[in-house]
Amino acid sequence: MALEIGNIDFTKERSEYDEDRYDWLSSELPIPFLNNTRLKVRLDFNHQELDEFQSEIETTLKNTLKLGKGERKRLKKHLYAYYNDFVLDVGEEYLEDMSVQENEDHIWEFVHISSLEICKSSITEEFFCQFVGGCDWETEHGILISFKNGNNLAKVGSYGHVNNSDAYADRSMDKYIYYGKIIKTYAVEQH
Question: Distance between CA atoms of 11 and 3, rounded to whole angstroms?
């Protein structure tokens, strides 16, 4: 079974995480935000939602594929906040897979995105793209980077919730991009 959204074909495949579910996946696409690393895009919607929200999904997908080096550069301070919060909380001795970073300059070298998903917040009902993977400082909880509508930075942190509203069941938490134990960074509209 096939589906086309934004001139991209998606096929229905059995979920690798739950044998009773199916996922809608694209073929591997070059992702400009990730220096053209090729990833499949996953749509996190059921059949009814795919029909009902096709326009919003398409807009989010198109915006996501326009993200590039400028967004990567603007993200550095939030990634570094996540790194620094981890180090301040548990100590440098727990950095098993990386050296101590004195600033944000090389932080992207320690981020390893492995999936891209288009989804919807359960609290705000807004649409997002989320990049998920591992990071060398927080090997247990990894990393999630999300953009509202595919173009406004929404969250940097461990994987789990697409935005801070969903993570804390509180819409006011979306004023933060990174919300850690010690360090917090704030949202600023980028577009």
Answer: 6
Average pLDDT over residues 78-91: 96
101: Cβ contacts below 8 Å, ≥ 6 apart: 80, 83, 107, 110
What pLDDT was estimated at residue 190? 42
DSSP 67: -
Q: Which long-range contacts (CB under 8 A, 24 or more apart) does 23-31 make?
A: 24/50, 29/65, 31/65, 31/116
Sign of the torsion formed by the C-alpha atoms of 16, 5, 191 and 33: positive
Tokens coding 168: 């804390």
Q: Is pLDDT above 70 for 124?
A: yes
Express each pLDDT in 126-153 by its tens digit: 999 999 999 999 999 999 999 999 999 9
In contact, 45 and 53? CB cutoff 8 Å: yes
Residue 14 is predicted with a pLDDT of 84
The whole-angstrom separation of Cα 56 and Cα 54 is 6
Give CA angle at 42 (38, 47), nearest 5°. Answer: 150
* Residue 191 scores a pLDDT above 60: no
Give the residue ranges of DSSP H helices in the chain.
47-52, 54-64, 69-90, 164-168
